[in-house]
Amino acid sequence: MIGYGAIARAVHTGLRTDAQALIRQVLVRETRCAAIRQATGDDVGVISSVDALHTDTRFVLECAGHEAVRAYGAEILARGISLGIVSVGVLADDELHEALRRAAAGSGAQLVILPGAIGGTDAIAAAGPENLTMVTYTGRKPPMAWAGSPAEDQFDLAGITEPTVLFSGTAREAARQYPKNANVVATVALAGRGFDDTKVSLVADPGANGNTHEIAARGPLLDFSFTTGGRPLAANPRTSALTAMSAVRTLRNLTGTVVV
Ligand SMILES: NC(=O)C1=CN([C@@H]2O[C@H](COP(=O)(O)OP(=O)(O)OC[C@H]3O[C@@H](n4cnc5c(N)ncnc54)[C@H](O)[C@@H]3O)[C@@H](O)[C@H]2O)C=CC1
Ligand SMILES: O=C([O-])CC(=O)C(=O)O
């Protein structure tokens, strides 16, 4: 697993008593190794380079942010190790996306896009771009869950008293401008009509109970709307707890006899 922040810790906890999947190593930055060794306990190795991965590693799960996908993604895939990512928004960079695709194609590994904080991408991906005429995404979070995003420079977040649209544009712009809030946007885009043809609104809503994701899609095969009202992780209010459970599910499904 790459990273040991809010999502990664919840994944580790979620799998501690699991017989199906086991986190063997955590890949973190060199400067963080000592502190993270204390936090993980003895059941996990703490490493700071892809070279230190066990040679029989089957799957790497990224829970660390866009920079981590850039730093390690291609190297991992080129070794034939499949990579699951939650920091999907980084794929709005076409050059990186292509480099990861090439690395995976060359080794036979897979780049796996996790659903993360949202439900519904299975239906959109099943329909496919040829069967979708429109896909939109609206994300709502309490105003202070947008702290640390570009919205902080444009709005007085603490003073917001009614639902306020912070961003309106394409999935590509949203993913680039909101790297810690719009990863699900990228997942919707990749499942459906792509980064430039998915309309996105990001809203600060003082009445929001947690992080709400609304997806709407239309086409000859379906008329689709799905809302996920996710509760945040205590360790990071901008991140929905479901993101970690989505990763736990992905890891369990790697070895499950019956896979749902
Ligand atoms: N797809 C989805 O539904 C969601 C995706 N995310 C993505 O997950 C990322 C992590 O989220 P949280 O765990 O809530 O954040 P966090 O800030 O609690 O944890 C991130 C961890 O990654 C580590 N890290 C950063 N750069 C690294 C690198 N180059 N190498 C190794 N470790 C590195 C940090 O030290 C930190 O421990 C977010 O930045 C975002 O990209 C977040 C929420 C939902
Ligand atoms: O956790 C969430 O609610 C979604 C999120 O931050 C992201 O997609 O980056």
UniProtKB/TrEMBL annotation:
<keyword id="KW-0521">NADP</keyword>
<dbReference type="GO" id="GO:0051287">
    <property type="term" value="F:NAD binding"/>
</dbReference>
<feature type="domain" description="Aspartate/homoserine dehydrogenase NAD-binding">
    <location>
        <begin position="3"/>
        <end position="111"/>
    </location>
</feature>
<dbReference type="Pfam" id="PF03447">
    <property type="entry name" value="NAD_binding_3"/>
</dbReference>
<comment type="function">
    <text>Specifically catalyzes the NAD or NADP-dependent dehydrogenation of L-aspartate to iminoaspartate.</text>
</comment>
<dbReference type="InterPro" id="IPR011182">
    <property type="entry name" value="L-Asp_DH"/>
</dbReference>
<dbReference type="InterPro" id="IPR036291">
    <property type="entry name" value="NAD(P)-bd_dom_sf"/>
</dbReference>
<feature type="active site">
    <location>
        <position position="213"/>
    </location>
</feature>
<keyword id="KW-0560">Oxidoreductase</keyword>
<protein>
    <recommendedName>
        <fullName>L-aspartate dehydrogenase</fullName>
        <ecNumber>1.4.1.21</ecNumber>
    </recommendedName>
</protein>
<dbReference type="InterPro" id="IPR002811">
    <property type="entry name" value="Asp_DH"/>
</dbReference>
<dbReference type="GO" id="GO:0009435">
    <property type="term" value="P:NAD+ biosynthetic process"/>
</dbReference>
<dbReference type="InterPro" id="IPR005106">
    <property type="entry name" value="Asp/hSer_DH_NAD-bd"/>
</dbReference>
<comment type="similarity">
    <text>Belongs to the L-aspartate dehydrogenase family.</text>
</comment>
<keyword id="KW-0662">Pyridine nucleotide biosynthesis</keyword>
<feature type="binding site">
    <location>
        <position position="183"/>
    </location>
    <ligand>
        <name>NAD(+)</name>
    </ligand>
</feature>
<dbReference type="GO" id="GO:0050661">
    <property type="term" value="F:NADP binding"/>
</dbReference>
<dbReference type="GO" id="GO:0016639">
    <property type="term" value="F:oxidoreductase activity, acting on the CH-NH2 group of donors, NAD or NADP as acceptor"/>
</dbReference>
<dbReference type="Pfam" id="PF01958">
    <property type="entry name" value="Asp_DH_C"/>
</dbReference>
<comment type="pathway">
    <text>Cofactor biosynthesis; NAD(+) biosynthesis; iminoaspartate from L-aspartate (dehydrogenase route): step 1/1.</text>
</comment>
<keyword id="KW-0520">NAD</keyword>
<feature type="binding site">
    <location>
        <position position="117"/>
    </location>
    <ligand>
        <name>NAD(+)</name>
    </ligand>
</feature>
<dbReference type="InterPro" id="IPR020626">
    <property type="entry name" value="Asp_DH_prok"/>
</dbReference>
<feature type="domain" description="Aspartate dehydrogenase">
    <location>
        <begin position="160"/>
        <end position="248"/>
    </location>
</feature>
<dbReference type="GO" id="GO:0033735">
    <property type="term" value="F:aspartate dehydrogenase [NAD(P)+] activity"/>
</dbReference>
